[in-house]
Amino acid sequence: MKCLGILADELRNLGINAEFESWTGKIPHYYWVYTYIESENNHETNCKSGIIILDGFTRKDISKLEDEKEKIIKNFIDFRKTVGSTTVCLSSVDGQMIDTQNPELKKIQVNIDFKEWRY
User: How many of the other CB atoms lie within 10 Å of CB of 57?
Assistant: First the structure.
């Protein structure tokens, strides 16, 4: 999906460490991992939609992760981009702390709705 590449580029532009599915290198103090759930694939309109789940982790002070969450939500509150024959809409309005059952590991989740049209 084109929207995952666009998301990755935008997160890099925001200075946020993020990778798809799992972190593969040396783990930084603050990092995000994302995956998606595709809820609709309409062949008549060539539109895919669903949700991207972005999970942020740290073993340090959570305030930097909170700041990054706010950057993500602000950037993707109504984000649209066309690349080649694909248009993507990413929209985010919520984030929340998640209990990891490990007092050392802190986690925040941001949900980003997506729609992707191919022409």
Answer: 20
| Spatial contact of 2 and 14, defined as CB atoms under 8 Å apart | no
Query: What single DSSP character describes residue 21?
Result: S
User: Residue 13 has which token pair?
Assistant: 């532009």
Dihedral sign from CA coordinates of 98, 21, 3, 8:
positive
pLDDT at 103: 93
Q: Which residues of the chain have pLDDT under 70?
A: none
Please say whether the dihedral angle defined by the alpha carbons of residues 97, 75, 28 and 37, taken in this order, is positive or negative.
positive
Contact 100/108 with Cβ under 8 angstroms? no
pLDDT of 15 reads 97
